Amino acid sequence: MAVEESQESVDTIEEIEMDPSLVLDVKGLVTRFYTYEGIVKALDGVTVQLKRGDTLALVGETGCGKSVTAKSIMRLVDSPGRIEDGQVLFMDEDGPKDLLKITEDEMRHIRGNRISIVFQDPATYPNPVFKIGDQIAEVIMLHQDLSLDVVKNKIEDLEEAIRSMPEGLDYDEAVDRLEHYKSLLDNPPEPTLNEKKQAAKRKAIAMLDLVRMPSAAQVANQYPHELSGGMRQRALIAMSLSCNPSILIADEATTALDVTVQAQVLKLLNDLKSELDASIIIITHDLGVVAETCTTVAVMYAGVVVEYADTEELFSNPVHPYTTGLLEAIPKLTERIDRLKQIEGTVPNLINPPTGCRFHPRCQFATEKCANERPVREEVKPGHWVECWHPQGSMKGRK
Amino acid sequence: MAELEPLVEVRNLKKFFPLSGGVFRKVLGYVRAVDDISFDIYKGETLGLVGESGCGKTTTGRTILNLIPATSGQVLFEGRDVTNVGRGEMRDIRRNMSIVFQDPMASLDPRITIKKAVGEPLLVNGIARGYRLRQMVLELLEKVGLNEDHLNRFPHEFSGGQRQRICIARALALRPKFVVMDEPTSSTDVSVQAQTLNLMKDLQDEFDLTYLFISHNLSVVKHMSDRVAVMYLGKIVEMTPKDIFQDAMHPYSAALVSAVPVPDPTLRGRAQVLAGEVPSPINPPSGCRFHPRCRFATERCKEEVPELRDMGDGHLVACHYAGELDLGYKEVLESEGVKMEA
């Protein structure tokens, strides 16, 4: 776990230091929206880490800033929104980068390529007027150098032809051509646009296969409306994985799906994570999904990460009153209770958020201090961080 | 359960939606949304209805209220057949039944105040007007946790949870005996959901209500209901007064239950992932509708439609092999050390 206590900010781009076990290190992210009604303080110092090969959950209720965090990481916050402060350190292939400092051109290289995102509603995201396969191929053509793939595909085709020996094939010529292409493997020539397109299409079909799409070649030639919700979501996952990203962000990717289809998609994400050596951020409001799939959890409330811990630790030993309340408020299949515990009140308006701890008006343990001072982020156990003046739960009576 | 008096009796209810096409809008086929279902809802109970999208839950709820006419079959409300009464009589019956819809924003007119929205059923039925109406509306709003200040506000001035409570207040305005809750909490957050569910339980006790609780969320249905019915492609496959999580006997219910993500990391990976997706209700599979996705399916399942059979204590299952199958999820749970309550 990265311990980044002192704010060693104000560093030039070359001097970025990053824990090598992390792929993403978000520190003190502040995003605000300048609307007519006032300034919406959507993110107020969000700090989370994503370890290599982990699945991180950002969990919280509507309007707590889960999606804004994802968009800020991708630098996709639109006007009137502005990212005002903080660091988003990303471990790229050639060393760490602060995504908030690099140029838009560099960012465009990372977006969809090194970090990609799957959105919530599979009905609106694939462009309805293009075929699934073409849309995936577009991403591949944009981000990847396909010259090697073109040569490899030709070799594959020739080998296949030699094996099956169709009518009218000149064997000697085919072998000669095979040798020729093999010699090109080390230094592939620049392919023509047509060759590129074909190679990208082929790769797109391979991606659809990877996400366990039944009859992938056929689906590649279909339009989004011809697919069911679950299949569309798979196609989107294929699209976002097509460039081998090191981080995949799934923004409520399974929320619109039925439970049985959701189970399929979650299993798929888990399988692919190990196959492709990627790390995943799952954004969800469903604590069940978190428990089922994630290794680390960040609980968000009103633009702040209030608690951050391993999944097992968080569910067995929650210390922030909001986390405890949330866990007690969900009806569970495994037990029968007469009344659910409820958190009184509603999520605050972020134009005018409560002072001090943003949860204090709804918190049963709140004191004077909570109303005046923002809690300090502190580590109650190794790897278990909380932002609260009076952490409860099993940590009761700690101080 | 046998001594309980049924409030609503559903008999062989069917609802087919015609699919038309071509130049002359010829009927090409039917969407068999609800296909021959029968059940009773007893006075004072909550019957939960679960299933995936497109299985016919909502159509069932609306057909029972005669909001959409049934294709065939009967719905008896206190002994009177709702599907076959005149308009005047229907109006009379309708006072006793009510519905809360899924999306509270869509079911409230954005241009009229809460006072008018909640008071409308009272005004239309000639129950109250003027100051008396205002008092009654206020009383209703106070029951759902709103106050006098809210009376003259418009729907957009409320949060999602408050709007849903306004809808509940409106549904209860005529003091109905029976309320259909159609996915009342599916658009709300967890903390608001807990508030709404608790409120609905309190109101049920206070007004002696009978609920048909429709939801795709098994955990919520289990929490709210005395009995649970599981629907798949227009049919009820299982109906039980017991705990569906422990005692599911139909392979579909078992798979559905196992697929629900449980907020407990120690229970990870128990989902039985069903292959494929729900087939189209236009041309449902022959025999048992679940057979193409069922891992226990035999030749018999392809040909013979299973009837709902009583497996004891009012536990009805529509499977040829109910009770004989090893659904293989109990052992998993027990090995994980989950307490099975009696």
Descriptive account of the structure:
The complex is a heterodimer of chains A (399) and B (342). In chain A, 46% of the residues are buried. Helix content of chain A is 35%, strand content 21%. The longest helix of chain A is centred in the middle third of the chain and has 18 residues, at 147-164. Chain A is α/β, with parallel strands linked by helices. Chain B has an eight-stranded mixed beta sheet with strand order 6-7-8-3-9-10-12-11, with helices on both faces. In chain B, strands 2-1-4-5 form a four-stranded antiparallel beta sheet. In chain B, 44% of the residues are buried. Chain B is of the alpha/beta class and 342 residues long. In chain B, a hairpin with a 2-residue loop joins strand 9 and strand 10.
* CATH arch. level architecture of the domain at 5-114 and 245-298 in chain A: 3-Layer(aba) Sandwich
Strand numbers in spatial order across the main sheet of chain B: 6-7-8-3-9-10-12-11
Radius of gyration of chain A: 24 Å
> How would you write the strand order of the largest sheet of chain A?
6-7-8-3-9-10-12-11
The CATH topology of the domain at 5-114 and 245-298 in chain A, please?
Answer: Rossmann fold
Give the biggest beta sheet of chain B.
Answer: 8 strands, mixed
Number of strands of chain B: 12
User: Topology as H/E string of chain B?
Assistant: EEEHEEHEHHHHEHEHEEHHHEEH
- Would you identify the regions of chain B where 5 or more consecutive residues have pLDDT less than 50? 335-342
CATH class of the domain at 5-114 and 245-298 in chain A: Alpha Beta
Q: Please give the oligomerization state of what you see.
A: heterodimer
State the distance separating the first and last CA atoms of chain A: 24 Å
Structural class of chain B: alpha/beta
Please give the share of residues in helix of chain B.
25-40%
Strand content of chain B: 15-25%
